Amino acid sequence: MSPFLTQDSVDCAEPQSAEQKLQQLDGLLTQSQQLWRSRSFDCQALPWQCDFPKLAETVWQLDDDKLDSIDACQISLNETLLGALAADLADKGLSWPLALFSQSAIGTDATLSLKDVASHKYTQLLHDTDEPHFSAHIKGRKWQQINAFVAQLPLDSTPVLEWCAGKGHLGRLIAKAQHREVVSLEWQQSLCSAGEEFAEKWLLPQRFICADAFAGQSEQLHREQLAVALHACGDLHVQLLKHATDAGTKQLVVSPCCYHLIRDKQYQPLSKAAQASELKLSRADLQLPLQQSVIANDKHNNYRLQEMAWRLGFDALQRNVRECDEYLPVPSIKQSQLNGDFSDFCHWAAKAKALSLPVNIDFELYLMLGEQRQRLTRRIDLVAHLFRAVLEQWLLLDRVCFLEEQGYQVNLSEFCANSITPRNALIHAFK
């Protein structure tokens, strides 16, 4: 089951307003910043160990081999860590609203019920003869996301604006399955051309506008319109919300993604409730909801852990060489580079950062230090990830409250199962 939708939230007798939920989440996030805002690669020890000794003991008792499976499931993560956190809080005489970890930002008016989400099956909107043509060159899960998203759209004849359309895969399915006029806005001319060619071939009521979503485009939004955006990143979907509310667009259906892709250095809250918060979220903070382990095959997982240990080993080396106790980011590497020696990696990283290494380096020592810090880093991240769903709910409710302040009725739901995409939240605003 997804962390957004739990039995507790479905059974809640007195549903709270979006603003009330946002304020409760805000209180929890504000009190717990020490646990989720640590930059693990900068740390030499658990940064909160003295204040939360039982939590520290719990994470160090976890087997390394089980960390990824725990991290991959929010429910498992809650079950593993919340007991120790509660015990530490009790020892300190503190009371945090830990029940929020097992509650959802989604109210009982959600489009999908608990049963629907848990047993979600692929929704086929096209005939068997048409679907292979429309789904060609689209990865399986992406096509499932598009189908599930379209299945949640209101069925009427309102024209559709597809925001940040790419090749218009979403818009063309809407045009074909729902027989609606679609305008697809996309800034890359090559993608527009590809989408136009497909629309012409299939005689679809879909046309493209090649334009930058950040360069105005408010004229594309109208009152009698349904504006849609599936996984428009960061400020792109925020821009749509602002333009649509200014235009009084009657309906919006948006699935947010990549909250950290913003132009400002800090997050700019949309709603009055979020603007009143003490939280000042950086781009790094906004990446937290997207950090979730994917259970990979053993070979891929071993490469990932090896790269982490090597980077941290080099970090220990560069701190000594530079006599500067701060992390030094190293560029991305090819997987093939991990087939060499750790010493080769260190020389490559030093060259990339214009750093001169001394002779007679004890690379075995620094590799051992890297492996030790890898185990530390994974545990710091695991505790931070306890709060990823809470932070995403805060961000979603900021959008919901903003739309409500503009006079919309808003449903917050999930349009597909978490296994299809963790970014499965759906905001439906209407007047």
Q: Which helices and strands appear, and what pairs or packs with what?
A:
Layout: H1 7-11, H2 18-31, H3 33-36, H4 53-61, H5 67-71, H6 74-92, H7 114-118, H8 131-135, H9 140-151, E1 160-162, H10 169-178, E2 182-186, H11 189-201, E3 206-210, E4 226-233, H12 234-247, E5 251-257, H13 272-275, H14 283-286, H15 298-322, H16 342-352, H17 363-385, H18 388-405, E6 409-414, E7 425-430
Parallel strand pairs: 1-2, 1-4, 2-3, 4-5
Antiparallel strand pairs: 5-7, 6-7
Description:
The protein is of the alpha/beta class. Among the domains are: 134-273 and 395-430, Vaccinia Virus protein VP39 (Rossmann fold, 3-Layer(aba) Sandwich), CATH 3.40.50; 298-383, no CATH class. Helix content is 46%, strand content 9%. A seven-stranded mixed sheet has the order 3-2-1-4-5-7-6, with helices on both faces. The two termini are 31 Å apart. The relative contact order is 0.16.
